[in-house]
Every structure is written in structure tokens, then in C-alpha cells.
Task: structure prediction
Amino acid sequence: MPVRDRSATRVGMISLGCTKNLVDSEVMLGLLKEKGYEITPHEKDADILIVNTCAFIDAAKQESMDAIIQLACYVRRNKKIIVAGCMAQRYADQLERKLKGKIHALVGVGDFCSIAEACETVLAEKGFFKRVSEFPGYIYDHLTPRLRTTPPHFAYVKIAEGCDNCCSYCVIPQVRGKYRSRPIESIVIEVSSLAQSGVKEIILIAQDTTYYGRDLGDGTDLSSLLRRLVQINGIQWIRVLYWHPAHISDELLGLIAEEEKICPYIDIPVQHIHDEMLRKMGRPTTSDGIYNLIDRICKIVPDATLRTSLIVGFPGETERYFSDLMRFVEQIQFDHLGVFAYSAEEGTKAASLRDYVPESVKKERMDRIAQLHRRIAAEKRRRLIGQQMPVLVDSQYPQATGRMQGQAPEIDDVVYIADGDVKIGEFVNVEITDTC
Result:
């Protein structure tokens, strides 16, 4: 059967999960565009639909499965479905067995570079395409085509892939492989190119950004990378996400305090504060260590914005352990906080733990943490009234909005700009007059 002209073949992408997944989606789109495929944002217009999946927790897996099943209805209209990403990597055999005939290809996290080959195969109807490496080793570089889907003024830059941490609840090392840092020159070239294209804020991401460079064995670390990036003209904000509490040095904190371009936005997923919970979670930190770290941050970077993520309902979490977590949240007064109910992931050490916490208790504890944080966050926002600060404009209609240095896109609140002729991508000085 003849293969359809690529320029007449439209490909759509549904990207699920985190920003690291989003970068993977942008890379696949870039590779396809380079091969001559037309990229469409409209599912109904696509000849091939790619769903880049997440499999981090139960809710993410369910969202991915729902999307796959929903897309499968397009098969009757001769549309081709390709499943990529973490679900494809982790559950390749099960997906092929259960959905063969409804999906046409599986592409794992180490094989995004074969996405064009997958499209060629399904268009030619040469059979089911499956490319899932057992030990993922792929990571894009500055030469890799990439079609960005974020607004023109900010971009995510993945500085590493995989993870070497051994958290007992997490499947990322199994799915994404061992930690592997990109060479510093590759990142510098990419960011320089982004700056030339008009990007003003770059957001560095990895499973653990603070571990960056340790696998290279040449002395490279996150501080040395940041020192290179602040020299790039055009970049005005550098934001770093996903700091591991065990890998934060005073040198790094001092650099954050010194360099105006680096947003003093410190995102530390501590997960819990009780030592027994941290031990069971496989976290190489202690309660005292976390309190001491936050004290160091406040002394070295006094204007830091603090974000964290917490897990409630981990096996063995007693009411006393949870009370310690509530007390911790009350004491630290985080600016931003995400809380998740523990879900057992097959293949992890934690999945075999006993003392399982009932779902109703997990939900109740999650609600209590969330309610406490809402009160804290509301009070912290009220303290901003009357202050003036620079804001990066993200949208104009129906209401102009922007972000301060202490607000990351998508996950945090925003600043509503009441008046003034502002443009997307410009910095404006605003006065905070009210909060909601």
C-alpha cells in the first residue's frame, strides 16, 4: 500500500503529565515537522494522534488510559493512534495485548527519536509498531528539532533525564532509567538559541535538578551551569524546579541570592517530616536536616519563595506522625504547597509495606493539609497588598495576567493586571491592590 505524502499527513499530540513530559512531546513534534509532517492542534483534523502518557501515580495512569480509550473511537474514521511515554514504557505488553486493533504503535521514553518511523509504519499499515528499550538512554540535545508549545516568552529546558534516587514509592528510575545529565555546552547553546528567538524566562527541569552534573565526573554541577546561563543576553529570569533536599549546597543558595536573573524560587518536595516516614520512603533526609535546610535557605536567601510537595497516607502513617506534618506546615508557612494521597505502585518497595492507611483517612488528611495551606497562603497574599514588583505578562484576554518571580507557570497563582496597555512577554511594574 503506498504511503501518504507526509506534507498531507496531519499529526496531533496530546501531552499528559508533567513539564518533563511536555518537553518530550515538543521534541517528538519537532522531529515530525522536520520530516515534513503537518502538525495540527485539532484532534478532529489529525490523521495520526499521539498521546504522550504519564504513569507516575494512579490518577495519572487513569487519565492516560481514559485518553487512550477516548481516542480509540477515532479508529473507525481511519485515524491512527500512537501511545508514547511512561505508560508505553511501563505497560507495553499489557497495552499491546488489550488494545491492539485500537492503537497502532507504542513508543517508549527511550525511543522518541523513532517517532517518525512509527508514523511511517502505521501509515503504510505494515503492522503494529513497537519500540520500547529495556534500558532507556535517550535524552535530547541542542541539535534535536523541537516544536515549542509554550508561549514565545518562556520555555522549559530539560537538563537531565532519569533518576538515581531510591525513593521506595517511586517508579521513575524503573521507567526513565539512571540519571544522565546533558553536557553543559549543549544546554548553553540551547538557551542561547531560545534567547535569540525572544524567550525571556527559562525554566530548568529534571527529576532532580540539584543532582545535575554529578554523573559526568568532571566537576560540573548546577551552580556551574547557572553561572554560564546568567551570562546569556536576553534571558531575564532563570527558574529552577524540583530541588532535592539532600542535594542543596550553601554555594548554590549563595548564587541564587547574588544573581538577579535567578528567581529565588525554591521548590523542595520534602514529602514528609517524620523520621519514620522518611525512612520508609527511602528519603536520605531527616526531620532535623529538613528544618536546618529551611533555616539555611531563609538566612542565605531571605526573599526566597518556598514550594513543597507532601505525601499523606503512606503505609504506617499514624495520627501522631500526621500531626507532626501539620505542625511542620504551620511552622514553615510555605508560599506554595501540593499534597497528594499515597498510591501503591506495583514494582516499588513501598507496595509491599503493611499498615495500609484507609482511603477515607488519606482523603481526610489531604483535605486538612490543603485547608491549612489555603489559610496560610491567603494571609501571605494579603501581606503583598501595597507592594510594587515586576511581573512577566502571560496573557491579555479576557483578563491580562502575569507572574511574579515567586510564581511558576501552570502550578501557582497569577497576578491579574487591572489596567494599562500591556503586551504578552513584557515585564511591567505593578502594585498589588487586592487578593482573592
Q: What stands out?
A: The radius of gyration is 22 Å.
